[in-house]
Structure formats: C-alpha cells, structure tokens
Amino acid sequence: MSTDTGAPAAGTQEAVTLPAAAPAKGAAAPGWGALAIVMVGTFITVLDYFIINVAVPAIQLDLTASSAQSQLVIIGYGVAFTAGMITGGRLGDLYGRRRMFSLGMLGFTIASALCALAQSPDALVAFRVLQGAAAALMVPQVLGILGVVYTGAARARAFVVYGLVIGLAGVFGQVIGGALISADVAGLTWRAIFLINLPVGVIALVLTPRLIPESRAAKGGRLDLVGAVLSAAALAAIVLSLVEGQERDWPLWTWLLLVAAVPLSAAFVLHQRARQHNSPLVDFALFKGRTFPVGLIAMLLYFLAMGSFFFLLALYLQQGRGLSPAESGLVFLTLGAGYLGSSMLSTKLAARLGDTLITAGPLTLAVGYVLTGLTASWIGTDKSIAWIIAPLILSGIGMGMTTGPLTGALLAGTDPEHAAAASGTANTVQEGGVAVGVAVVGAVFFPALGDAPVPGDYPHAFDVGLIPLVAFCLASSVMVRFMRPRAEPRPRAKKPAPH
Q: Contact at 8 Å (CB) between 108 and 384?
C-alpha cells in the first residue's frame, strides 16, 4: 500500500490506497523514518501525562499552589487529552493526518514553552489544558499513519514499537522527571520537564514533511461540530467527575457531573446514528463484526489495569517506603526492563501464537501483580525493596506481551479510510482507561490507608489497590478470546516456500 507523498492541495479528496508514485521533491518514500517521528510524538505526550506526578511538590513550593490547583495541573491535561481524541482522529481523516500531526506537534511545543514560563498556578493549569488539547490532535494520527504507511509484517512491527514506546514513556516519566528535578539545572527545577519538549518538538516539525507521507480518507465531508462538542462534553464529564470525585471525597457536583454524562453520551450516540450517511464523527461501520468492538472492551480493561499501576506503585514507593523520586525511578526501571524485553520478542511470538499471545499477556500481568502485592506484604517496611524487583519484571513482561499486539489486533481489520478515526477511538479508550483506572484504584487504596497513615499502613493498602487491577487483567484476557469468530483462523507465521 502506498500513499501520496506530497502535501495535497486544499479541498482535494485523495484515497489512501493510491498506485505507487514517486516521492514529491523534498519528501522521502515511506520508511522507518515515519515510524521514528510519530513515535517521538507518542513518547512526549505520554511522558507528559506521567512526568508531572513527581513535579507536584516542587510546583506547590515555587508557585504556592493549593492542593486543588496541583490536582488540576494533572487532571486538566488528562481531561483535554481524552476528550479531544475522537475529534482529533476525524480531523486527520478529513484534512490530512500528516497535517494534523504537525499542527498538534506545533501546539504541543508552544504549550510546553508556556507551561515552563507560567508564573501562577492558574496560568499553569490553563497551559496544561492547551497542551492536552494539542496532544489530542497529534496522537490519533499516529496509529492512522502507521496503518496506512505500513502493511503486513512491517505494520505488525510498527504496532509493537508503538506499544513499547507507550510503556517506556510511562515508566521513564518517573525516571526522567525525578532526574531533572533533582539535578536542578540552571535553577529551573520543575520547569525543566517542559523545556525538554522544545528541541524535540522543533526537530520533529522540521523532519515531519520529509519523512511522513500525507494521507486522508477517500470520502470528503465536514467535521461534525455538534458531535465533537457532545463527545468532548461526555468524556470530560466522566473523567473529571471520577478523578475529582475520588480526590475531593465525592462532593455533590461530581455526582451531578457523572449523571450528566449519561444523557450527553446518549445524545452523542443518537446524533451519530442520524449522521451515518453525512460524515459522522464515528462511523458505525467500525463496529461491524467482533474484532473492533470486543477489542475496544479488552483494551479498556487492560488500560484500566496498566496505567493506574504506575500511580499506585509510585505512592507505595515514595510515601510507603520513603524513596526519593530519583530512587523510585530506579525501581520503575526494572518494570521497564521486563516491558522492553517482551516487547522486542512479541513480534515473532505474535506471528507464531496469534491471539494466544494477547490472551496470555493480561494473565501474565495479573500473576505479576499478585506476586508484587504478596512481596510488598512480606517485606513490610524493614526488608530490602530489592525483593520486589522480580515480580515487577514479570509485570513488565505481561505489559509488553499485550500493549502492542492488542493494538495491532484491534486495528488490523480496520478500513484504511477510517484509520485516524479508529485510532482516535482506540486512543480515547486507552487514555480514558488510565484516568478511570486511577480513580478506581484511589477509591479502594485511600480508604484502606486510613486518615492518618504511617509507613506500615502502605503495604496493606497497596495490596487492596491491586485487587481491582487483577480483576481487570483477567477480564481483559477473557474478552480477547471473543475478539474473533471461532471460524476465523488466527494468524500464524507462514512457512517459506521450498526452493
């Protein structure tokens, strides 16, 4: 499959499956350079989702931010990111995925600079929302670009790399953030975590037109503005109410917001149903058959269990074991080691095992969580934290077996015409799963911890917090088994033809 490698003229409606053509002047034929650039965008957006956690104490000290403002610095990014991705994916289908990726990267870079220059907590919250909105425009194009540029085994490898980058960004968010704040280069403290995005963004913007071919949906149309508002409002209401409800002990307004999400979601679905032949935001053709809808449920359950574990582990290590952000980051590296190792092997294993690998991934993660919890209880507060390394490596292996292969299986049968819209939906489920998972974990972890916790209370609360995560892993594994009809053969490696 090849695509037009030059920038399309405004108003054109080229298909994503065009005959092979010579690259336009200044552009490169599709190659691994495209993967490298979109992975940069993936890494920095996921990194900024997690890196802020270790910077909150420094932000509170420097800007005299209240607890509520500190929470909004984290939540504002996540809500804008999650709420905007379906719309971002549709914009890529309509106006060009490379174009929207570049605009998102430009906005993210500018917003990062503004965050670094913020002089008040409210300004930082506003700039974080802007940063999340830019990420929502950029990230849905990533899977769309990968699905169009690469085919066959190359596409499978690209999706595995995508899963690897997501996991490493989540892990290294703790490591990089702790290192930058501890180093305090030029007295920048927390501002350095935003400034590092600037050179990365500038380089990516320069290389994007040369390395990424343009693509868009074959059919024209206009953006469904009503659907965009309804989807953003419904997602924002769900994520904001769950996260803020847990943080603020469920005041009345969080319940009202959660209730309001129901009619907003219903209105969105009815509106999309009415627009199915008039450029809908979400084409219901994506949900024909089992693979995409069942795969979305499996992905939601998996990310409920994966992303929230980073949050839970950071609390246990820093508040329960008294580790510094940098020391906590070193423990996270062991999780990343397992993730990296299994991700590098998952391409070959997926070719041989097919869906069996994805089914085993969440099960492996569940076992890793159980062993991590049992180990935390056994070591208490006096034994070495090194005992927890082995179960963390196993947990990382389970994550690496699942993230990339599950994403690839979910999008494998998607029509390239809807590539960015499908990836926007998948990304929304991923990021929404992380946010909701944190809220679920908090709802069981903090009550188990008590009102006046001491370090000895954390192992028990950590164990209790892991219970729903294990349940999510098991449920995800079950859903993977239903992704394909029984009559549909699972993909296996093809033996080379004899010479």
A: no
Length of the chain: 499
Rounded to the nearest angstrom, the gap between the alpha carbon of residue 378 and the centroid of all alpha carbons in its chain is 33
In this structure, are residues 271 and 227 in contact, taking their beta carbons and an 8 Å threshold?
yes
In 3D, which of 90, 80, 97 has the Cα closest to residue 232? Answer: 80
| C-alpha to C-alpha distance for 162 and 143, rounded to whole angstroms | 8
Amino acid at position 114, single letter: L
**Helices 97-117, 32-50: inter-axial angle, 10-degree rounding:** 40
Tens-place pLDDT, residues 204-237: 999 999 999 888 876 667 888 898 899 889 888 8
Question: Does position 24 have pLDDT exceeding 60, yes or no?
Answer: no
HSE-up (13 A, CA, CB side) for residue 350: 28
Q: Which residues of 48-85 are buried (b: 16+ CB within 10 A; e: fewer)?
A: bbbbbbbbbebbbeebebeeebbbbbbbbbbbbbbbbb
Taken in order 346, 347, 348, 351, the sign of the CA dihedral is positive
Alpha helices in 354-388 (DSSP H): 355-379
Calpha distance 470→249 (Å, rounded)? 25
Nearest to 473 by CA among 349, 394, 368: 368
Place of tokens 């549909």: 488
Assigned token pair, 157: 């490898």
Cβ contacts of residue 282 below 8 Å, gap of 6+?
Answer: 86, 90, 227, 231, 272, 421, 425
Provide the token pair at 446: 């903090």
Q: In terms of Cα–Cα distance, which of 309, 245, 303, 310 is closest to 50?
A: 310
Among 177-191, 284-298, 358-372, the range of highest mean pLDDT:
358-372
Average pLDDT (178-194) is 81
**Average pLDDT over every residue of 98-107:** 96
Q: What is the pTM of this model?
A: 0.77
pLDDT digits (tens, 9 = 90+) for 459-484: 999 999 999 999 999 999 999 888 87
Residues 469, 436 contacting (CB under 8 angstroms): no
